Amino acid sequence: MSRPKILMVEDSEDQQRILAWRLRKLGDFDLREARDGQDAVAAVEADPPDLIFMDLGLPRMDGWEATRRIRELPGGSEVRIVALTARVDRRDYERAVVAGVDDFIPKTVAGPDAIRVVLRCWLPRVL
């Protein structure tokens, strides 16, 4: 069985490192990184991951637009996208849902338990 591929889309190196650390404690994943929405879309085009943790407030192309573009790609509807963001306003949530995210986690509650729940939901063969 191959390791599940997870793309972490985050412009903050600190946040990227924290998420990678939490994921490594929870399982054996093929972790990939993108720093903005354009890089995320390109990464999905090149080799679609099983799951994406998508920050919404990104440079060059924000997470909402990146999610919309990923959904338009061949096979893009198969990729699970979880918004992992500091943007917790109801309008941000609604925009994320309209853009096509499958799940939404505010960074304020994105501890190991929340990450584990998301993995169990969207990658059930893992945990």
Strand elements, count: 5
Could you say which structural class the secondary elements and strand pairing correspond to?
alpha/beta
The helix tally amounts to: 5
Radius of gyration: 13 Å
What order do the helices and strands follow?
Answer: EHEHEHEHEH
Tell me the β content: 15-25%
Major sheet strand order: 2-1-3-4-5
| Low-confidence residue ranges | none
User: Whole-number average pLDDT?
Assistant: 92
> Oligomerization state of this entry?
single chain
C-alpha end-to-end distance: 14 Å
Outline the biggest β-sheet: 5 strands, parallel
Helix content: 40-55%
Shape: globular
Would you mind describing this structure in some detail?
This protein is 43% helix and 19% strand. It has a 5-stranded parallel β-sheet, with helices on both faces. By secondary structure, the protein is α/β, with parallel strands linked by helices. Helix 3 links the parallel strand 3 and strand 4. Helix 2 runs parallel beside helix 3.
Key words describing this protein structure:
alpha/beta, 5 helices, 127 residues, single chain, 5-stranded parallel beta sheet
Short description:
With 127 residues, this protein is of the alpha/beta class.
Produce the secondary structure layout:
Layout: E1 5-9, H1 13-26, E2 30-34, H2 37-46, E3 51-54, H3 63-72, E4 80-85, H4 90-99, E5 103-106, H5 112-122
Parallel strand pairs: 1-2, 1-3, 3-4, 4-5
